[in-house]
Amino acid sequence: MIRRGIATFTLDTGKCPRWLFERMVKLGRSMVDVIVEEYGPDEFIERVSDPVWFQSLGTVLAFDWNASGLTTILTAALKESIKGREKQLGIFICGGKGKTSLKTPDEIQQWGDYISLPEESITNLVYNSKMSAKVDNSLVQDGYNIYHHAFFFSKNGQWAVVQQGMNTTNSTARRYHWFSKSVKDIVCEPHSGISSDMVKVPCLNITAKESEENRRLSTEIATTSYIELIRDMKILRKHSSNLSKMLAVKHREDETIFLELKDTEFKTHPVINEEFLYNRYLEKILWTVYQIKPEHYEKLVAIAGVGPKTVRALSLVAEVIYGAPASYRDPARYSFAHGGKDGTPYPVDRKTYDQTILFFREVVRKMKIPPIEKEKLLRKLV
Known about the structure:
The protein has 17 helices and nine strands. By secondary structure, it is of the alpha+beta class.
């Protein structure tokens, strides 16, 4: 079973050498050709959505296994490797790092028009691209700000998202993966199978199943009475110093642990801080939400201007004033790759490990490259 979710890496500096990038493009072109020919474009999209497979691909193509640059460079190399052959392969890659990520909707529209996708399908792809970025920036408040967003889709409409966030405090990056078939509810645990080198507590996780009542109540209080909502906000402002002393962190359904927070931790806490409680722009956004009156939480999040502060404010009111707790567990569930040899945080999944190696061995053997190159790649899989 393919694993999808999050992987955490250290931030690296500098640029990828031109010779290395060109080599990755060349090998990537040959590898993509084999995968599409043998398994089809939809299989490639599904494979990309697996953080373990994606990481393995970057390693096979010669990049550092644990560098944050693997995400950005590998995405760029794959995009370059299929350039001019997108329609033939049935694969399209949009977006990338920094300002390039902002072009994703336009690129999706252009490719959709080029292959004559129905306008409804194009609109849906653009929506999922925007929402995946918004969810990982606003609903999973883990301290990582998205700076890389790549949207992969096939001619058949299957799509995957590979995006990466940066945490400048601990100098790490975290990668988020999405796959169309695994997303049952875009605001409720859209990532299935998550890997990470570190977890962060507390981490406001509105996508968790246990945050369902918090999501429902957030929508209700934002659309029922603006005056009452602002009244509740004033109550929180008045008692913000007390809120900073203690935060209920629900780890399991049958146990609530109270986590003591020092004042210094409170000032940078992702869930509660005075700055967002006194934000005038926040009240303006809440008024907009009240006027629009979204039918459910997904529509609320989709409103322009609704971001992390709006989500935090509504979540806090729902929890503290109305008793609907949100989840503060980091969605990261196991460490990078296939597990730890000491069984921490879970035993090595040998079956998945072996399947990944066998898959790449088979692909490498079928690649149209010199035997010496094949041997070098196969050595990396030993």
